Each structure stands twice: as C-alpha cells, then as structure tokens.
C-alpha cells in the first residue's frame, strides 16, 4: 500500500466533531517569543565545551543523549512555561506534559535551571539588544499572512473548540518548524505554529515569501490531528509494517516511529485539503500531492 493511500484513508477516519463555544473570528500577528529563543539557544550551545560548567547545559546534554530530547520536545516545553523571568509551568507537568521525552521530574528541574540561566546570563538584555532585528523579521513576515484563513480549521474538522492561535518566529530554529499545543485546566487551548527561517538576504537578515504559508498551515494542523490520533492509536498498529519499509527515509526527516509517520502524513494531507479549498492553483496542489507520494 502506498503511503499516500494510507495518508488519505487515515485522514478520513480521523475527522471528528466537537461542539463547544467559540471565541469569534480568529486573527493572527507574528511575534518573536523570548521563551522560544532562550530554549533554542540553550540546546544549540549544549554541546559546546565552553559551557561545560553550566548545570543547565549539562542537563540539556544528558536529556538529549539519554532521552532523545530535541526538536518538538524543546519547543513544547517553551510554550508550557510562563513568561520570563519566572519561567514556571503554566499547567501541571505530568509524565507526558510537556513531552514524554522529558518526563515530569526532568521537566520541572529543567524549568528551574532555565530560570536561573535566564537571570545569570542577563538574557533579557540580549533579547532587547536584538529587538530591531526581530521587528524587521516580523514586518517582513506579514506578506505571508495575506492568504491565511484560520476559519478553515473549524470548517475542515467540524470543530469549534475554545482556543487561540499563536504564530511565533523562531529566529534560532533554522529550518525547523513546530506545532505544539497547550491545554489549560479550564479547557481553554492554545494552538502554536512556530516557524523557523531558511531564507535570508545577503546581509543574513531573514526574508519570507508566500512559500512559507503551507508550513504555517501544517503546524497548526498538529493541534487538531495529534489529539485525534492519540484517541485512535491502536487502530494504526499496521502502520508499523509500512514504517519498516521506509524507516531510513522517515528517520532522515526526524520521523522516528510509525506514530510520527502517520501523524505527519495526516497533517500533510490536511495541508493539501486547505490549498484545494482555498482555490489555489491546481498546479500547486498537484505538485504537493506528487511530493507526498
């Protein structure tokens, strides 16, 4: 069975309906988040010898090496912390919150050491010193948003969940993009699309084009697909057989197991659905379908 068949068959099986109050017409403004920048930098520097004496960097190296903490686990922790300088959990940490790769105790300890690191390194001054750089990136990113329709998620999933959308520019994430979600005790949800930057001008300043739009759509889809998949994981046990045949290609994209493969397949199929519903040129849609085969 081809992967594209699995993707679309699974997508049809996971469309679900919730009926909850809505917060009205969603809107979006890009921003640079100190929590995201701080954690990106911490894990980028974790392997550098000059930081061997830092308790936070030691813990980051240990978690990366022993528990494979990286990628979306790091960004998931970022959005589960309160604004700096406190950097405290916004919801109670559990075995799988913010991510199972951390675990409850490691996540709590890491957050404590992160707050110390923020204070000791005067990260607030570092962030403020780069504000003009962030402002330019934000201004340049606005061109991407002219064709973004957040109401599509409601129409596609039949879901009017209570939630807010947040678009964050990850200045130190390179080509990495992430779609974490925070669920508050009162049921309110926060949907995040954290977008890296893989294009720059000759001076090294970020540049953006409408080519970034499908990535925004992709990452927000994770807030809907991931929880739906979690409720039906056992129904996709046979996907392990597919994964075994393409494991090397999947791992090259940081898709380390069959669950991740299925989730990413569903999300990519949903992006195609968005483009089709939005009247995008059929050539672009065909290009994306071929790319997923």
Fold and architecture overview:
- This protein has helices at 3-14, 34-45, 55-67, 72-79, 104-120, 123-129, 131-141, 151-157, 213-231, 239-251, 258-277, 282-292, and strands spanning 30-31, 163-169, 181-183, 189-195.
- It contains 12 helices and 4 strands.
- The protein is globular.
- The protein is an alpha/beta fold.
- It folds into 2 domains: 1-31 and 131-293; 33-129, no CATH class.
- It has a 4-stranded mixed beta sheet, sandwiched between helices.
- Helix 1 packs across helix 11 (258-277).
Oligomer: single chain
Low confidence ranges: 1-9, 11-25
Task: Estimate the global geometry from the Cα principal axes.
Answer: globular
| Rg measurement, Å | 19 Å
The major β-sheet equals: 4 strands, mixed
| DSSP summary: helix tally | 12
How many domains would you count in the coordinates?
Answer: 2
Structural class label: alpha/beta
- Strand count: 4
In short:
The chain is 51% helix and 6% strand.
Descriptors for this entry?
single chain, 293 residues, alpha/beta, 2 domains, 4 strands, 51% helix, 6% strand, globular, disordered N terminus
What's the layout of helices and strands?
Layout: H1 3-14, E1 30-31, H2 34-45, H3 55-67, H4 72-79, H5 104-120, H6 123-129, H7 131-141, H8 151-157, E2 163-169, E3 181-183, E4 189-195, H9 213-231, H10 239-251, H11 258-277, H12 282-292
Parallel strand pairs: 1-2, 2-4
Antiparallel strand pairs: 3-4
Helix pairs in contact: 1-11, 2-4, 3-5, 9-11, 10-11, 11-12
């Amino acid at each position: 069975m081809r992967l594209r068949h699995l993707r679309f068959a699974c997508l049809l099986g996971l469309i679900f309906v919730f009926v909850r109050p809505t917060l009205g017409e969603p809107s979006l403004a890009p921003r640079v988040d100190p929590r995201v920048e701080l954690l990106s930098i911490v894990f980028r520097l974790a392997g550098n010898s000059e930081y061997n004496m830092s308790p936070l960097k030691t813990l980051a190296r240990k978690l990366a090496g022993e528990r494979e903490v990286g990628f979306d686990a790091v960004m998931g922790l970022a959005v589960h912390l309160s604004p700096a300088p406190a950097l405290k959990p916004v919801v109670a940490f559990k075995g799988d919150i913010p991510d199972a790769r951390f675990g409850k105790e490691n996540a709590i300890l890491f957050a404590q050491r992160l707050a110390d690191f923020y204070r000791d390194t005067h990260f607030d001054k570092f962030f403020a010193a780069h504000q003009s750089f962030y402002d330019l990136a934000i201004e340049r990113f606005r061109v991407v948003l002219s064709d973004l329709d957040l109401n599509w998620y409601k129409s596609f999933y039949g879901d009017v969940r209570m939630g807010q959308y947040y678009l964050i520019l990850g200045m130190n994430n390179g080509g990495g993009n992430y779609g974490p979600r925070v669920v508050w005790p009162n049921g309110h949800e926060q949907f995040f699309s954290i977008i890296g930057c893989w294009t720059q001008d000759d001076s090294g300043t970020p540049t953006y084009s409408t080519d970034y739009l499908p990535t925004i759509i992709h990452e927000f889809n994770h807030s809907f697909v991931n929880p739906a998949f979690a409720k039906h994981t056992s129904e996709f046990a046979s996907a392990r057989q597919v994964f075994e045949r393409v494991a090397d290609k999947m791992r090259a994209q940081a898709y380390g197991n069959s669950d991740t493969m299925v989730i990413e397949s569903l999300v990519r199929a949903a992006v195609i659905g968005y483009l089709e519903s939005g009247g995008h040129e059929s050539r672009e849609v065909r290009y994306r379908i071929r790319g997923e085969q």
